Structures are given as structure tokens and as C-alpha cells.
Amino acid sequence: MNGMKKFGPSFWAANTMELFERWAYYGMFLIIALYLTGPKETGALEFSQTQKGWMLGIVTAVLYILPLFTGAIADRVGYKISLLISQIILASGYTLMGHFTSFSGMFMIFLYLAIGAALFKPIIAATITKTTTPETSSLGFGIYYMIINVGGFIGPAVASKLRENNWKLVFIGSSIAILVNIIILFLFYKEPPREKSTEPLGKVIKTILSNSFHVFGDFKLIFLLIIIIGFWSVYWQLFFTLPGFIDQWVDTSPVYITLSHFSGNLAYIASNGHGSIAPEMIVNLGAATIILFQILVSYFSGKLKPVIGILLGIVVNVTGMTLAFLSCNIWLIILSVVIGAFGEMMCSPRVIEYLGRIAPPNKTAAYIGSSYMPMALGNVIAGFLSGPVYEAISDKYSLLGKEFMERFPGFSLPKSNLELLNQFITKTGLTSDQTNLLLWTKYQPYKIAFIFLAIGVFTSISLWIYNRYVVKG
Questions:
Q1: Are 246 and 384 in contact (CB under 8 A)?
Q2: What is the per-residue pLDDT across 434-445, written as a single tens digit (0 to 9) for each?
Q3: What would the pLDDT profile of 177-212 be if each residue is shown by its tens digit?
Q4: Strand partners, 277
Q5: Residues 289 and 153 in one domain
Q6: 374 plus 228 within the same structural domain
Q7: How many Cα atoms are found within 13 Å in the side-chain-facing hemisphere of 344?
Q8: Does residue 185 share a domain with residue 224?
Q9: Domain boundaries, position 238
Q10: N or C: which end of the chain has fewer CB within 10 A?
Q11: Residue 421 in contact with residue 248, Cβ under 8 Å?
Q12: Residue 278 backbone phi and psi in degrees, to 5
């Protein structure tokens, strides 16, 4: 408790703003795949899996690249004004998101949101840095990372209940969370001291690009960054693909029934209003696991060499993601999400730590900043896997369309997915559950798990080679 008293008002204001920003973002992000591809009859947009994959992959990649430059802009114009601009972008972006129904419109408004999030992201981290001392830094960033996951857990839980009534309420809820941040910004946030540069902003950005190119001249670093792309391309399936996979293929009612035996209120909170558990609540167990175990995992994984910790984290995370898509058993999927979270806890923090260790004394920030590149490229690959690959191998309605045309070649495919399902059921006399079992057995949509496994195995072997022959650990 004495350590807590050493932090000033701006530290707590920044952390509270981080909580509400993550609340808003993950409240949207964990359900966005369902919203983009869900049936129009429910108020969703019913885009194709390919459209969803490219949108999520490209926009989130942009979000992770932009902080390399938005941090420099914030240093130039000031943290408080930059935070205000970012919150205005986010609040308006979330509000508008519920009003666009075309692919191009949604893509542009999602990109607009990414710009706001990218402007916000480095300022809060910089504020934490400037409002802590060498003695309080470790605790301060521990609180910061804990807050990120608390917001990341609460947001989807709230959004899950809101979407039961109307999808648009999810985006309004995210916008309200950002408006709370604007109040906090004006009432409690005091800009920490910063060095004011007289260099033109264009020259600052040019220097950032120059430093980045110099960093990429380090063979050891490039090898590691290319390897880590594999980890992120599998990791992001947790958000891009798993909610839709659960929604299409998995019966979550056994979890609802089990929770009902313990607590009717808990079952209601986690349910989707139809006697089963919402997919985003299953995926959200990953954030809950991180909140509960991050400190413990960091303590034990800290005893390992960074590269070994990264390697072990990749193996554990990929194991979880592979198992999640191998079965339509909800209990195995829950276990897989928890396993994947432990892998994330072991791997992600160690990457930044290791980059800081291998960096020359005058290039630490540039090396750590380079960690965003594999995240960005991993997002693009994850979007490809979640889009056209998933649509070809695992999408229920694409497979149902094939089966429909095979059985009834003289009929044209219905325009909507629900109409397709209803017509198939009517013509075949099968129930919805029997149709799912038919498609699962005949087309084996779980085969996409082997692609994730192959990427994980290749990434793990490459990292072992890196550790054995490059680092010589």
C-alpha cells in the first residue's frame, strides 16, 4: 500500500483512461467478427468471411504500425491535446460504426478508429514512464498491464449483453466509455513534463524511418522478427476466427446448464439470452486468465532465458489455438482458450524484454519499437487465414452452399445465410443440429487447425535454430 501512495494523480488518471479505452475497444473488437459476418436478420452485416478477414487483418496491422509515428506527433503537440484528439476520433468513430452497412464504409470507419487508437496508445505508456521513478517503475507498469486486461475483460462482458438487444448498442456503449475518458482528461489528467523539440515534425518522422531502417540491418534482429510473425498469425485467430467458429459449430448450452446449477445470475450474465453462452464470453476467459495469473507466470518464466521463455510461450499458445479448432466440444475449447492465454503470458512480454537486451545502448527504443512490425505483419497473415482460408475450409455457410448445390442442382442459392439454412432443412427434413453434424462429418471444418499447427511447428523449430545457432544459447 505504501508503494501505491507514491503514484500521483496523473498516473492514476492515465491508468483509468487506459481501462475505459480498452473497455471500449475490446467491447467492440471481440464481437466485431460476429457482427461483420452474422445474419442480416439479426441486425448484423453478413459480409463474407473473406471480407471480414481482410478488414480485420489490414486495419489492425495499421493500428500497430502507426504508434511509431503518432508518439512523435504527441511529443510535438503535447500529450493532453493529443489525448483529446484521439478521444474525439474514438467517440465519433464508435458512434458512426453502427450506422455503416457497406463493406467500404465499415472499412473506412474502422480505419478511422485505428488512427484514434494509435494516437492514444503511446501517450498513456509515455505518461506511465514519466510519472514513475526507477523505484516505482516495475510496480507502475505492473498496474498498467493489469488495467489493460481488466478493461479487456469488462468491455466484452458488457458488449455481450448489449448486443442481445441491438448491435448498435455495442458501439454506443463503447462511445460512452470514451466520453468518460474525456471527463477524466479535463478533470484529473495533468500533462507530465516533456522535452520540447524544436525540430520540424517532418524531420522527426524522417529520423524515425531512418532509425528503423538501421535497426533492420541487424541480421539477428530480422531473423527473430520474421520468426515472431508466425506466433502472431496464430495468436490473432483467438479474436478473428474463434468467436465465429464457436457461433457456427459449437453447442455452448452445457456450460450454461452447469453455471445454472451454481448461480442463476452468473449463468444469465454469461448467456446470450437463448439458454447458451455467447461466443465472446468463452473467448473472454483468456483475459480473465491473464488477470489472475500474469504476475505468477511472469515470476516463473522470468527464471528462463528470454528466448527459451518465448519459445515455450509459442508452443503453449499454438497448442491452445490448435486444440480450439480441432473439436466442437465446448469444454475442450474453454480449456484451449486458457492454455493459449498462458502461452501469451509467457511469450509476449519476453519479446519486448529480449529486444531491449540485444539493442545497442543508443537504439533501445528503436529495437523495442520494431516489435510492432511482426505484430502488424502477423495481423495481415491472420486476416488471410481467417478470411479466404477459413471461408474455403471451415465456414459453415460456404460448406452448406456446396452441399445444397450438390443435392439440389436445379435450384439457385438463397441470398441470405439463414434463408439457405432454412431451405436446406425444409428440403432435407434434417434438423439444424443434424445439418451441423452432416457438414462437420463430411467436410471436416476442423482441418484448419492443422494449418495453425503447421505454422506453430515451423515457428518453434525456427526459434530453436535461432537460439541454438544465432544466439548460441
A1: no
A2: 999 999 999 999
A3: 999 999 999 999 988 876 666 667 677 667 766 666
A4: 271
A5: no
A6: yes
A7: 24
A8: no
A9: 211-473
A10: N
A11: no
A12: -65, 140
Cell 507498469 appears where?
Answer: 141
Per-residue confidence (pLDDT) for residue 468, from 0 to 100: 85
Instruction: Show Cβ contacts of residue 124 under 8 Å, excluding neighbours closer than 6 positions.
Output: 14, 15, 17, 18, 21, 144
* Nearest alpha-carbon partner for 73 in 38, 125, 120: 120
User: Residue holding cell 525456427?
Assistant: 462
Given a cut of 80, whether residue 217 has pLDDT beyond it is no
CA angle, 391 as apex, 52 and 283 as ends, to 5°? 60
**Could you give the number of structural domains in the chain?**
2
Is residue 292 a part of any domain in this protein? yes
DSSP 142-209: HHHHHHHHHHHHHHHHHHHHHHHH-HHHHHHHHHHHHHHHHHHHHHT--PPP-PPP-S-HHHHHHHHH
The domain that holds 103 is classified in CATH as: 1.20.1250.20
Classify the C-alpha dihedral 181-186-187-190 as positive or negative.
Answer: positive
Q: Is 271 helix (H, G, I), strand (E, B) or coil?
A: strand
- Which of 129, 158, 190 is a domain's end point? 190
Indicate whether 1 pLDDT > 60. no
Residue for grid cell 471436416? 444
User: Average of pLDDT values for 49-70?
Assistant: 92
The last residue of one of the domains, among 137, 157, 190, is 190
Task: Indicate if 174 and 232 belong to the same structural domain.
Answer: no
User: Measured on CA atoms in the order 159, 248, 109, 26, is the torsion positive or negative?
Assistant: positive
Mean pLDDT, the chain, integer: 88
Q: Residue 441 is which amino acid? A: T
Residue 403, domain member (yes or no): yes
Binned at pLDDT 50, 70 and 90, residue 264 comes out as confident
Residue pair 89/113 in contact by the 8 Å Cβ criterion: yes
Amino acid identity of residue 333, one-letter, is: I
This prediction has a pTM of 0.91
The predicted model gives 249-255 an average pLDDT of 94
